[in-house]
Design the sequence.
């Protein structure tokens, strides 16, 4: 899985060109879908294996030697998960975060093994398959939830409403902006692209309108280095509409 993340990051970091004007960031989401699909299959295999063990009555107590291996696996995967999650959030990389979640799934599986080994050796032979079922369900939920988020990102799902409201307030804070007609966004790997249309007074000179455009773009770009580009379009308000709104008020 680490190779999948590495390859997707290399492709994603190639940047934009004439053929890919928005870059290759979506490769990271394809990588995420692959990782979460594998986790989904692993979860199903864990669940079916545990259920078959219960129905078949094949409930042997695992060797205590395997307990040491499971403990080492838990420690190693906790470290890999924390490092991966930290790195993924730092650079906003879906591929690295997906790889970290795979380490988390391995960690949970190892915890189930530990509980199963201890319980089985104490005489509770059902502990092993029951622990496996719990972990299988956790991994299944993680793979389904995060996999669906990756699919949504792949089809250009907008930023969260809370984030869009924050952007709207920032734009309205620029002197000369009367209204924000729309804010469209898309995420491509680590970066976001924004398309914005603002409304200004029709009495402004072209030069003044261009200054407002540049200020709005500057304010959007300085929010985060994750904003790759912001395309701002200028629209003039209709003086007649303005008078009608004043009469209604």
Sequence:
């Amino acid at each position: 899985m680490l190779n999948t993340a590495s390859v997707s990051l290399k492709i994603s970091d190639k940047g934009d060109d004439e053929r890919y004007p928005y870059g290759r960031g979506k490769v990271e989401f394809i990588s995420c879908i692959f990782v979460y699909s594998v986790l989904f299959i692993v979860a199903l295999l864990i669940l079916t294996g545990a259920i078959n063990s219960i129905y078949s009555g094949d409930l042997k107590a695992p060797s205590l030697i395997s307990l040491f291996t499971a403990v080492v696996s838990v420690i190693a995967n906790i470290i890999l998960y924390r490092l991966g999650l930290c790195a993924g959030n730092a650079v906003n990389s879906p591929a690295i975060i997906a790889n970290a979640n795979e380490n988390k799934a391995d960690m949970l599986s190892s915890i189930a093994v530990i509980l199963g080994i201890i319980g089985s050796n104490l005489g509770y032979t059902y502990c092993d398959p029951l622990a496996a079922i719990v972990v299988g369900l956790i991994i299944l939920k993680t793979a389904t939830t995060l996999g669906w988020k990756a699919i949504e990102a792949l089809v250009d799902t907008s930023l969260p409403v809370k984030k869009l409201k924050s952007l709207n307030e920032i734009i309205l804070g620029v002197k000369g902006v009367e209204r924000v007609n729309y804010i469209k966004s898309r995420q491509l790997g680590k970066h976001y692209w924004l398309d914005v249309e603002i409304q200004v007074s029709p009495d402004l000179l072209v030069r003044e309108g261009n200054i407002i455009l540049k200020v709005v773009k500057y304010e959007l770009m300085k929010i985060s280095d994750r904003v790759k580009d912001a395309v701002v379009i200028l629209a003039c308000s209709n003086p007649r509409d303005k008078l009608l709104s004043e009469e209604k008020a």
Q: What stands out?
A: The chain is about 65% helix and 10% strand.
